[in-house]
Amino acid sequence: MRLRQRGLGCKLFDTFYGCLLYADDILLLAHSVNGTQQMLEICDEFALEFDMKFNIAKSVAIKICSRHNIQCSPLTLSGISLKYVSAIKYLGVYIVSAKCFKLSVDHLKVKFRRAFNCIYSIGTQQ
Prior knowledge:
Layout: H1 2-5, E1 11-12, E2 15-16, E3 19-22, E4 25-28, H2 33-49, E5 60-61, E6 76-77, E7 80-81, E8 83-84, E9 87-90, E10 93-96, E11 102-104, H3 106-125
Parallel strand pairs: 5-8
Antiparallel strand pairs: 1-2, 3-4, 6-7, 9-10, 10-11
């Protein structure tokens, strides 16, 4: 609610999508680095108010835009800079840093090949 009240986040078809939550995972969506930093500050204030802590070691940033491979200002949470990564795993799906929204299924291909090779090797031994 605090993010929406401050006008931060993204809207798609008049629906606010600034913050996606699942269990203890939080995914912030913003149009700019400045907007993301403001959202992080609001989340940090909320955490202090409710005696919570973010796991900074697991907190990362990813850029999805035409300038995804260009270095930009660091984002900070609780005074510590977040690392920019080329891909994140969220709810079992890999989201890749690119010009537009992109998912990676490479990990599924590897698992399939591994399982296939295991079954194939057992079948050829008999």
